[in-house]
Give the backbone structure.
Amino acid sequence: MKHICLYFQVHQPFRLRIYRFFDIGASQDYYHELNNRLLLQRIARKCYLPMNDLLHRLIEKWGKERFSVAFAVSGTAIEQMQLYAPEVLVSFQKLAETGGVEFIGETYAHSLAALKSKREFERQVKKHVKLMQSLFEQQPSVFRNTELVYYDQVAQWVGQMGFKAILAEGADALLGWRSPNYLYESAAAPLKLLLRNYKLSDDVAFRFSNREWSEWPLTAEKYARWIADIPAEQQLINLFMDYETFGEHQWVETGIFEFFEHWVNLMLSEGYGVFLTPSQILERHKPAAKLSVPMPLSWADSERDLTAWLGNELQTDAFETLYALEDEVQSIQDEAVQRDWLRLQTSDHFYYMCTKFFSDGDVHKYFNPYNSPYEAYVTYMNVLADFRERVRKYASDPIVERSDSA
Amino acid sequence: MKVLMLGWEFPPRIAGGLAVACYGLVRGLVHHGVKVTFVMPLRTGDEPPNGYRLLGANEIDIPFTQSVSLPPFWHQVTFYGVRTVLGPYLEQLLEPELHFEAVPEPVSVSSEGTLRLEFSGKYGTDLLNEVYRYAYAVSHLAEREEFDIIHAHDWLTYLGGLWLKEKTGKPLVVHVHATEYDRSGENPNPQIRAIEQMGMEGADLVIAVSFYTRSLIIEKYGISPEKIWAIHNAVLPKDRQPFERPPTTRKVVTFLGRVTYQKGPEYFVEAAARLASYLPEAHFVMAGTGDLLRGIIRRVAQLRLGARFSFTGFLPPAEVERLFDLSDVYVMPSVSEPFGISALEALRAGVPVIISRQSGVAEVLPHALMVDFWDVDGLADLIYGVLRYKGIRPFFIRHAQAELSQLQWERSSARVIEAYKTLSV
């Protein structure tokens, strides 16, 4: 019998408005309020609310011992729910009350801080843990870094913060001949590793409605059979995907909801497997091996590396310029500055500047508000120029700082 | 005196300095009592009225005919062996265009059975076709307009001017705001160059916007110096309140113009790179668009200057004025600039300007800060000086403003009239 670990990523960035040169120094209003609102409300209607409903029904039907799932919800997504669709947050809270949901820790802003600064990384993780405690009365003990960015240094930092396990991509570069269908352990820290089975995950997340795929249409029976047919010793199946897969990336018309429900029912009724959260997996599995990952891996694109966010000079400049402000920002006690500091770190801003449009273009265009990576870069840098001026003002004018922090 | 003026741009349809110059000149001529009819490809109706007549080539009624008799000079073009993607010779290129039934879409037919051609008025891939169609349309003004002089602005309208001259025998003045050598360096587009050559040779009088351009016309096109007059552009007086500047210690260094080879945007970026660490208060703005823009943005990112740069894209006139009001220094590092009217507009807004020696406007601004376009260190030095040394700014503004007050369109137009008078009108 398989142990299936379903984990969903819930994240929305604060997309920037068209922020022009003329706005620098004149406006601190960086975000596209209308777009952010409309998008979130659309996703809520098409995905979050109906899928939460479905999960709720399945937990009640089968009991949390047999059907549980995990979520990582970014702080920016939570903020947007609070601002634009509070009923979604209520719906997640109701789902949490069933006891069949584990909330996983991540960086508050869904940022790439792990690549740059231990201090900022820890600050954001702690902020996110607090948020999860206050909203869902859970203390996350498993961690998931932004876009599954993982390497040994992240393992060390996360281990030191007291997490027991981390989710990562089951990339070929990491596993080699090994299978992702076991529990592993980091060679760098006392931290267990749950590795995404990218083939089975992407069959649903990316290929489900692709008519050029030789396995289309993917039926619940077929998918259940694939999983059941995996050799018995490979007991752990980690299916990690964007929550927006359901209803947004794959529209309701594709039958994604019916597929999911039918598949879960089939797995359980036929005794093919049970659905466990990462923490439940840790109680029942022993690590098969220790793995070392010196270079960062992610779950993005065919390369499974960082080039979607930091692959060209536009992205590097934006990223380096942003983090050059870190020291100054840490000492500023201003809510707006701190809020913008977090929102500007969200990885999506860098993703929009990606120029490798040919192989993975379809994914990159999704939700992308810009016509070109150049436009994304120019807009972001204008905002950053303004933000930097605000930060510098504090640095050069300690009186302002004192009166604000008093 | 009645002048039939052929031009491609007129406010509010502005791509660069051409529209601004045409507008100023027309107003100056009207001031001196000259009657001007200005023919542009497409009239939209929102152009500023001011005692002259505006006509769109899209409004000219053309009698329907199966075959068009081309003027002899068309064949002169084929003499240059002009090649196009559509056919080896210009005439072949024209053929399908002039058989109107073959291209029904861009043509409208009136109830009287006459035709009107349609124009985009833009600089697209179909520009050459529009240029030929414009020439054909305006050639029909020969029979129905009264005028003493034909005055054609830049190569886009030369063919129309030549055709009108051919039909009426009236003198043709061509006004050179830029040549293909300014736009493309030593690799001119052969078709455009050939049209320029024909226009300048066929004209009775050539007006160059600077001595710099006059020499270029003599040197590159072999035009007889006696018929070339250098008449500088001017600037209309300031007619607006300045925009308010947000309080900031930021100093804005501005580049404004098409982001193309001619305007030297790379030199601006390299100078900025040298200055960045010395002038933490400097913010660089590149306003405009063009084929080099993406490469420039990459270069800026590579230099890690993204947060110090803003790329605004093309700015409409009102935003250009706003940008000047936010600027502390205006930099025009053109590789080859026939005139550079935007330098005068910057000055009018009270902004110190740094111009390349390779620009015509340098001739009328002896007190401007000047540098060779390739001298990146020199350019950086001047920017630093203007922003940091308090002495330069007031000194420069005072002298340049005095120079500017001499540059009135009434004066430039008076010179144009003087030149007209040398023709046997």
Q: What stands out?
A: The first strand of chain A starts at residue 2 and ends at 10. The longest helix of chain A spans residues 33-62.
